[in-house]
Amino acid sequence: MEHLKDTIDALMTGLSEKNAGPRGGNPEQWLKKALTKKELGHIKVKYFSKGILGLSVDSSAWLYILSLRKEELLNKLKQENSGLKNINFRIGEI
What we know:
Blueprint (H helix, E strand, L loop, with lengths): L1 H17 L8 H8 L2 H4 L2 E7 L2 E6 L2 H9 L1 H11 L5 E6 L3
Parallel strand pairs: 2-3
Antiparallel strand pairs: 1-2
Helix pairs in contact: 2-5
């Protein structure tokens, strides 16, 4: 079952890089510039498709904290990639 999970993660990462947008790069690089190391330890990029960045968050507490900062984070990330339209947070595996 782990092999399937690894395959899906690799596929989603590949799609994220393919759809990186006009300025290129990948979402992990954008997040490193916008978030602290502590915050980065609690999230994982799940997808970037059609301008939507999907992030998995490890707890409801971090989901709440990042949701409060969503507009600020979105503005910072738009500086890195103008094709970004929205961020979706979900509780999930990191």
